[in-house]
Fold each of these.
Amino acid sequence: MKEPLFGRTLSQLRALVEELGEPTFVAAQLADWLYKKGASDFEGMHNLPKRLRQSLGEGFEIGRREPERVSLSSDGTKKYLYPTAHARFVETAFIPEGERATLCLSTQVGCKMGCLFCMTGKQGFQGQLTSGEILSQYRSLPEFERITNIVYMGMGEPLDNLEAVLSSLEILTSDWGFALSPRRITVSTVGIIPAMRSFLERTECHLAVSLHSPFDEERRRLMPVQNVYPLAEVLAALRESPIARRRRISFEYIMFDGVNDTPRHAKELLRILSGLRCRINLIRFHPIPGTPLQSSPDATMVRFEQQLKGSGVMTTIRASRGQDIMAACGLLSTGALVGPSGEVDY
Amino acid sequence: MKKTAAAGTTARSIAVERIAAESLPLFEARVTENIEVAPGVYLLKYPRTEDFVPGQVVGVTVDRRIVPRFYSIASGTDEPFIDLLYDVLPEGELTPLLSRLGSGDLLLVSHATGGFVDTADPAWWIATGTGIAPFVSMAKSGLAGAKRLVHGSRTLAGFHFRKYFTNLLADRYICCSSQESAEGVFAGRLTEWLSMQSLPADQRYLLCGSTRMVVDVRDLLIGKGVPFAQVLAEIYF
């Protein structure tokens, strides 16, 4: 079986060409073909030595995945289905809005975090994506050239797949890769502290932390990760990390009717985030099958937003996009493609 | 360029080591025992040096360059050792190394941490595989009096501590096997057994196991009228 090259960093490509007996500068040319020129085979890489092209063709493949299916929302959002290893799939959302077009990437098939409100979590965990599988969702998108922003907020917990996510970010933001500004990229997390520290130290991209309740016991019921990485420790880690002025830390807050949307919650949010330069994104809950939760009414969300804004915290209510094709926040899932019971592990 | 690659690797290792150390201080412990209790499942012991709350976890690694993983403590609060029950993941970075440790070998462990804890009030404990570990700790710490324990496993070998819980809980201990049958074992998944039960809405339900089990059981409980606030889940990741 041939090994994929798409998704390898420049240092990994250098090691490879050196192993194949070529000078290391050739790695930059190879990266140029993979990421800037979007090559689909080795034969067309005419500035590479012929013997290298031959060696690459014998043992390797480009390995970029193409989408197999697309769903179109009435609001213009598109949801793409991408294949991954072991005949599994992930979903990717393309969200155009005027001049801006955001791509929401997946990092895992399923998710281990088990959050109560998330459709991806309901399918359990089936596997990690490689860096190449993450980047294929970007480079193989038919609207590739329109993308202005990338968010790692699709299926999976990005920081539970740290090395692949960091490699993909390196390729997205390096001059030898896609040369995107890290200010155009946001990575979300439930708050896996060691990985979050690594992410903050090794990249310049924005960070979005899923918060959803400022109260320990309440957050524990919504997000089991609170048992081992409590919010107080996540916030302490953020306060200890040197964060550049232009880098944005945001907190995602899905609003559940009668659960986390009271003035008491807003007051506690303000207290725990005091002194932290951040913004809060309020998100409508998109109901999933069997959920006991409902979205807060719009009026409640506006009141909540005003209470936070009134205390000087930058707060926005995020527009829902792609709900009719199950592409909105928390709705991505390929559970139906996993198989009837093959993935049940008990 | 090999030197560069090697230097990069070293720099990364140092970064990982430092970040891991900042996030989770680690202390040296000597392994007392590390035995295979079922195919691919080990019980490791090291001397207890501090108090913990039953249900808590400790971070464990064998080398500061390998990010620690959390494991539930499987021993009682008055016992002299910390017991850890773990599956060996053949593709994993840590557990194959962990399984090779023997008595006297060095282990790096964190303080006990975590909020998956219980009281003496009536509650249901629901686990799959090595997810039984926190309930062993709770039971050995005197919290089993008003509890019902449901343990699911594909195979009979996955019912760790079966004898202990049979003696302790008698008919309040239910084993569910989805692939093998035996006397006293429900033939089917634990979700099938739970779906046939009348489940009190005013009791707590503590779940520990794979994400798939946790979300399946949580959905089932909510579907049978249990408020989600009564459900506390611990997942492996």
Amino acid sequence: MSVDREYTCRSISEGVGKGDVILSKDALCFALVEAATGVVLEKGHDLEGRSVAGKVLVMPTGKGSSVVQADGLYRLIIHETAPTAVIIEQPEPVLVSTIIAMEVPLVDTVEAAFYAAVADGDHVVVDAVGERLVLRKTGAGQAGAKP
Amino acid sequence: MELTSLERDMLAGKHGAGVALAMRVQVGTGKAFYAERMVPITRAHVAASAQEGDVYWVTRLVDLGARCVVSPTVNPSMDLKYVDEHIHALAGEGRERVAASNDAYRRIGATMTLSCTPELEKNAPAFGEVVAFSESSATPYVNSVLGARTNRESSISALCAAVTGRVPEYGLLLDENRRAEVVVDVEASIADDFDWSLLGWAFPMKYKGCEIPVFTGITERPTPEGFVQFGAELATSGAVAMYHVAGVTPEAPTLEAALGGNAVKARVTITDADLDRVREQFSGEPGPIDFAMFGCPHLTIRQVAEIAALADGRRFAIDTWVLTSSLTRELAERMGYLSSIRRAGGHIIADTCMDIPGCWDFAYNKSGVTESPKCAFYCQVYGQRYAVRPLAQAVEAALTGEVVK
């Protein structure tokens, strides 16, 4: 029987999103994600070939030039292939302003116990209004997002 | 973050829904970076792009009633008239998007410079001025060469700043974050603008951190063009938004001043071999080429003059495009450079970027020559194979139709 566990976080872009977790060791640029499918195209990226559509994306930070990040995320939203929420460790100016403008929930400063517990495929509710995460262990993946 | 009563009113929608939306993005960004307050800006530059996401954002803000209180200059997209007359009649969605972008930016109150070198003409900040600049090649120039202050703004956040007239105070706006932590000993000989391009690409290849670097061992001040290209390559190969050159840039009269008491986190040496590796990486294959593309970032009048002098009385063997601002193109016409380049069969096009979809189809999946590693890097997505050479050599290649080793 699975038990829900709660963790604290800090809200950067308000809203509530939920879905299965997809963990990335690498920063992601949304311009290098295929809009029609949500599949990461960037060569050598931790998530290359996997889809972020409808997922809660957990990654260290964002990357990409002043323009392409916004266009990339916008196209994912139009195609309904965007992540439902994003959890980061380090804010980065271009990512932060892009995500707030495109109204995707974004949190950081998540307590360390979350990273120790979470695995690919677990279900998470990101409440970026109440500043809390609710984790349900369902994933088959290995726990421990932080290498 | 502490907001003034005016700022609280803006956020609450008392100045309209568009202003409130812009403020929401900025307050959220300020929160993310633990900014304590917002500070006024006196200039802004928006890296407008005519991409879908960008057109969506500017249209949304302006349709919600937002207007810029600080009129921003904007990045290039496409000179539709020139493209119609000399390349192809751009049809459908691409044409509509360029027109929609220009229309929305004009309505929101932008100054339609359509150039990626605002810091050289029409929007040059002074020392210490707080600004919001979002073109990645302009940002390092503004911070490092001019000593004005901007964070690495996105096109979204820079437009918000233009609408609200302020930015959250964090990062490079604060003295303590502008000092160097990495020392770069330049042992390579740096003789011309192209060497600055190579140096700009080489440093992030050797050091991946995001601390501010100070370059030492430079004995001669680069030209403005050398500085522009240096910053463009630093921001493409890495994500450098500020650097110092000891004894040259204004916040680095000495190495010690650039460090400002910071401990040195890392020391990096750049040798001639490092520059040669970059030269080799971008050298391309010797042999015939299909086209030549100059001006990423947009060329200055001195560079246009150099091309005109080399081309005068000769003919380009291949399609040759010189990209610059409308002001520089106008000046080139007055100076006779435009005529020289046209008589040689070349084009000078204003307001246009080499990385704008729907414009350069004739050059897709072809081989070309350019002076810009940044151009070669970004235009790979169009299947373009570039040989990168110093400007004079690249112009010679355009005249003969062939790059030499």
